[in-house]
Amino acid sequence: xxxxxxxxxxxxxxxxxxxxxxxxxxxxxxxxxxxxxxxxxxxxxxxxxxxxxxxxxxxxxxxxxxxxxxxxxxxxxxxxxxxxxxxxxxxxxxxxxxxxxxxxxxxxxxxxxxxxxxxx
Length: 120
Ligand SMILES: [Zn+2]
Ligand SMILES: [Zn+2]
Prior knowledge:
The protein contains five helices and five strands. The chain is an alpha+beta fold. The chain folds into two domains: 3-66, Arc Repressor Mutant, subunit A; 73-118, 2-Layer Sandwich (Dna Ligase, domain 1). Strand 1 (54-56) and strand 2 (64-66) form a beta hairpin.
């Protein structure tokens, strides 16, 4: 793994806020001033392909990145694109029961209006 890729991975793993590529680039620059934004995008793509980093597609906003270790789902605000983590333990078992199949994996994204946007 290149130094750049390790740095990018470390930044994603140290963040609990689902950073965008731009935010990851800003943090990376502090540690490696010579790093280019293209390098960040390229390495993020590779890390997502290898399953080391999870990508969250946000409608009408830049994608966000997350650690894949702890299984959880995402609630995305339709209004501002804020991402909240939701723990849905046991959902895979429910899916297996409902389908009567050995479901291996599922992808779920839920949309809502976040509390901040609701208060406007
Ligand atoms: Zn919102
Ligand atoms: Zn998350």
